Amino acid sequence: MPTGNDRINAEGAGEGLRDLHTLTHGELTELLASLGQPKFRAKQVEEWVWSKNARSFDDMTNLPKSLREELAARLTLGGVEEVARQVSVDGCRKYLLRFPDGVSVECVGMPSRGKLAVCVSSQAGCPMGCSFCATGAAGLTRSLTSSEIYEQVMHVRDDFNTRVTSVVFMGQGEPFLNYDATLGALRRLNDPEGAGIGARHLTVSTCGVLPQIMRFANEPEQFTLAISLHSAVQRTRNALMPGVRKYSLVNLYNVMGEYVNKTGRRPTYEYALMGGVNDTDSELQALCDFCEGTLAHVNLIQLNEVEGSKLRPSTDLRAQDFVRALAAVGVEATVRNSRGADIDAACGQLKQRLSK
Ligand code: SAH
Ligand code: SF4
Question: What's the chain's average pLDDT?
Fold first, then answer.
């Protein structure tokens, strides 16, 4: 079996070239030294890859032409390809991106008042099977690598030709079932020599994989955490989110208490309102009990309807009842309006194929 380095050093290997994004700083430095290059080259190459998102070695104009050719003979530059896009009336753009192995994922760019938020996928598909989510219905194809997550952000940045101000991991997949790649992508997004996005503007949304929530609490960066709650009644949540049945609400409550103690940061609870399912008086009471006295922000989302599902959104009036009742027990709540709903780019509507 050839090692990674054999592949990097093989001349003109054609197929099976290693993606430069997967090289560590040490490996890149070693490769450049073996090509007789001075030390500062590694930094130059990394700037092209991570900060400028170069699509070809020829773009790397401050490298000698001979070096660009030598690198091109040994390495690829990822090669995510846009296979389709849709543009929403509200300015959101949804992209279907395909990786070299043929696996595709969706990501979304959401511009507003000089800012650009990007929603990325952490997996192609998702194994959790939440009943209200279009991604869940398709199952898992595979997890993404950290550079595949990162490349989605850079693709959107280059398309809008503007700085990305925030990233949410709310596309396809469960980030905490792909923890290391998620963390690697977060760090690269945060790195001033990468995308340079402040940690607080990088949000991971999880359906509640408890061991990884504690791991996340112990990371040194101030990343933001969102939890898909959707019901504070165990029986309802089990039915809606079968993949997290083994992590009970009591345990989620305790782990979130530890998370807040450890980090001092306010988590967001995502709650998609579904008529007659989780918007009843008893569900509202359970939600108030779950949040009262804790540091929490509740994001109420009107359910985005998913093809083939009987679940329906709640009414706006009901959403306002929730906001008022939560406020009465000291819990901050907002009703989030869905963006990109006309192009199925809203939460839970990302599927692997562009449907329209
Ligand atoms: N797997 C992670 C992140 C991706 S889902 C998670 O579950 O948190 C991103 C967000 O969209 C989650 O809060 C999820 O619960 C929500 N969501 C999924 N389907 C939805 C739908 N049909 N309507 C509204 N929100 C939905
Ligand atoms: Fe997966 Fe999140 Fe959808 Fe559940 S809501 S199926 S965890 S992507």
Answer: 91
Contact 78, 97 (CB under 8 A): no
For the chain, residues with pLDDT lower than 70 are 1-15, 338-341, 343-356
| Alpha carbons 330 and 266: distance in angstroms, whole number | 14
**Residue 176 exposure: Cα atoms within 13 Å on the Cβ side:** 22
- First-to-final CA distance of the chain: 44
Closest residue CA from atom 8 of ligand 2: 173
1-36 tens-digit pLDDT: 344 444 454 444 445 788 999 899 999 999 999 999
Nearest to residue 253, comparing CAs of 229, 271, 230, 277? Answer: 229
Q: State the angle between helix axes of 249-263 and 210-217 in degrees (0 to 180), rounded to the nearest 10.
A: 0
Instruction: Name the burial class of residue 309, with classes exposed (0-12), middle (13-18) and buried (19+) by CB atoms within 10 angstroms of its CB.
Output: middle
For the record, the structure tokens of 126 come out as 């998702």
Which residue reads 């070096």 in tokens? 67
Using CB distances shorter than 6 Å, the residues near ligand 2 are 126, 128-130, 133, 135-136, 173-174, 207, 228
In contact, 308 and 131? CB cutoff 8 Å: no
Q: Which phi and psi angles does 306 have, rounded to 5°?
A: -115, 135
Contact between 175 and 182 under an 8 Å Cβ cutoff? The reply is yes
The DSSP letter of residue 194 is T
Enter the pTM of the model: 0.92
Given 46, 70, 92, 106, the catalytic residue: 106
How many Å lie between the centroid of ligand 2 and the Cα of residue 53?
29
Phi, psi of 104 (to 5 degrees): -125, 150
Question: Hey, which residues does 224 pair with through a beta bridge?
Answer: 203
